[in-house]
């Protein structure tokens, strides 16, 4: 019996591309993927559960984790820390389960630095015009903020070469199917299977 380790899949892309929508649609289908639970220092909102929605921690605890390299990535928003706990990801992978992380581009690049064996998927808008429409149609941004978001998105698109796959988010269902195909493809990769066989043979000989 080959002891199969899980794979970390990281979905990322520019602001407004629809990462959260695609991730939600992916998890509404039958899947063996485990969603990566983030750590935060903000207080739980109504209905949120520790270990389900987030791991809720005190600020000093998270600062200690950052100091000791216990987060694959982290950022600070509005005075609160958010991050991906290395231990949770590694334990879940060791159990043979795939972990799925949906994150901003800067966070994904941090993960790649700390966990290069992950599979990095860049969600791409059908066009910059479409991306602008999506940002504008949120109806929550001022004109200046829309312009800044678009400039940031263009910069993030230039970082695409750091990723393994690119999925165009023209239709949500199609984007989900492409991600599912990437997951299957990664499990069939010769290098991955050869590595698992090698470990199995070594343990058999000892």
From TrEMBL:
Q: Which reaction does it catalyse?
A: GMP + ATP = GDP + ADP
Q: Where in the cell is it found?
A: Cytoplasm
Query: What are the protein's UniProt keywords?
Result: ATP-binding, Cytoplasm, Kinase, Nucleotide-binding, Transferase
- SUPFAM superfamilies with a match to the protein in the record: P-loop containing nucleoside triphosphate hydrolases (SSF52540)
- Gene Ontology cellular component list: cytosol
Q: What is its EC number?
A: 2.7.4.8
**HAMAP family for this protein:** Guanylate_kinase
Its annotated function is as follows:
Essential for recycling GMP and indirectly, cGMP.
Family to which this protein belongs = Belongs to the guanylate kinase family.
Name listed for the protein in its UniProt record: Guanylate kinase
- The organism is Salinibacillus xinjiangensis
Q: What is the lineage of its organism?
A: Bacteria, Bacillati, Bacillota, Bacilli, Bacillales
By which gene is this protein encoded? Answer: gmk
């Amino acid at each position: 019996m080959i002891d199969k380790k899980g794979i970390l899949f990281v979905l990322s892309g520019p602001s407004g591309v629809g990462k959260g929508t695609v991730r939600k649609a992916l998890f509404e289908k039958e899947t063996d993927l485990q969603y990566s639970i983030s750590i935060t220092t903000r207080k739980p909102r109504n209905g949120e559960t520790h270990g389900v929605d987030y791991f809720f921690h005190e600020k000093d605890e998270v600062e200690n984790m950052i100091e000791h390299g216990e987060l694959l990535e982290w950022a600070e928003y509005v005075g609160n820390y958010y991050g991906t706990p290395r231990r949770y990801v590694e334990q879940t992978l060791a159990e043979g389960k795939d972990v799925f992380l949906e994150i901003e581009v800067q966070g994904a690049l941090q993960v790649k630095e700390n966990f290069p064996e992950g599979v990095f998927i860049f969600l791409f808008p059908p066009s910059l015009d479409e991306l602008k429409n999506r940002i504008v149609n949120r109806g929550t941004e001022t004109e200046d903020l829309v312009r800044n978001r678009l400039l940031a998105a263009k910069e993030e698109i230039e970082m695409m070469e750091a990723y393994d796959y690119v999925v165009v988010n023209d239709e949500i269902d199609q984007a989900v199917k492409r991600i599912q195909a990437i997951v299957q493809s990664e499990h069939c990769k010769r290098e991955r299977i050869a590595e698992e066989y090698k470990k199995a043979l070594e343990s058999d000989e000892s």
